[in-house]
Amino acid sequence: MDHIALGCLLFAGLATLLHFASAAIAAFRARRGAAPPAFATDIPVDALPPVTILRPVCGRDPYDELTLRSGFTLSYANYELIFCCDDANDPIVPLIRRLMDEHSHVNAKLLIGRDTLTSNPKLNNLIKGWRAAGHDWVVMADSNVLMPADYLQRLLGGWRADAGLLCAPPIGCMPTGFWAEVECAFLNTYQARWQYAADTLGLGFAQGKTMLWRRADLERAGGIRALGLEIAEDAAATKVVRSAGKRVRLVDRAFGQPLGLRSAAQIWSRQVRWARLRRATFPVFFLPEVLSGSAAPLAAAGFAAFALDVPVIAAVGGLAVAWYGAEALLARAAGWHLSALSPLAWMARDVMLPVLWVQAWLGNSFSWRGNDMHLADAVAGN
Questions:
Q1: Model confidence pLDDT, tens digit, residues 270-311
Q2: Could you tell me if 167 and 297 lie in one domain?
Q3: Number of domains in the chain
Q4: Would you tell me the Gene Ontology cellular component terms (predicted)?
């Protein structure tokens, strides 16, 4: 029993040290990105390379006007903004046309049409934009990404000689209600934290919210259709870049995603979808996710305390305070959302994580914006 208890104690200690280390890395990266890129102050704005921004749109979300308008107000001299929509009758179309009329000085266009070259509806929506892009640097950015005025400067400033792709994890902001707080807990001090840690160790992977490509790199890999080799375009992007001997990099200070009101069902559905995608595209890396939250270390610490005749409540409570204290320090240092509800949201997330992991293995289908998608069929189709 003592050997088992010591093993549990060792696991809890190592997991906690890893948690602290990943939080410190993420905080450092976010704070480092707070300063403007060196080139942005040394090079005149009109000398920066021209960039194309592709934004796929579908349906309406509460913060669409805020996020889509932000693409028209960038402090960048030479960029084009291309909106891609499947259907001319989509409810988002009138908003985009109005924004284009209000910002007629911005080189913006709306492309409408449906491609069916891949099993990924979002990627199919982007294909026409990729074909129409007029510049060598191309950003693919989801419609719910909030772009600050220096959005493009920050992206280009994060590019490195060994990069084949630059991404930014979504940072949840402006939540309304407890379940939106839980989504912040997933996006920020959990997913973004692990992404920054992986990137710092040279194991960066793509996130589809914002992707900066050098057009020639993707064309050499087969063009935008190469991103349809996996059901998720970011998983395909990761594999495309690594196969070319290059790295996926992350921008140091990522961009906000306004959340608004969320329900428990919405959070659960979204997290199950992402978990199943990770399980299907990177199964080896998905396996240890069941141990990635606080549930397993806290359970191990409780068992070790009981076996070693140490007060269980004190041991588990002390570890929980240290664990979530690290998340609070990370959120504060990075400037991410932090509220009185955050600790409860972090605990709810960690209770959900093992259940989500099991659920990911129990199905091969999910729904995304009204599209029923099947993992096995999509992989077979490619």
A1: 999 999 989 988 899 899 999 999 999 999 999 999 988 889
A2: no
A3: 2
A4: membrane
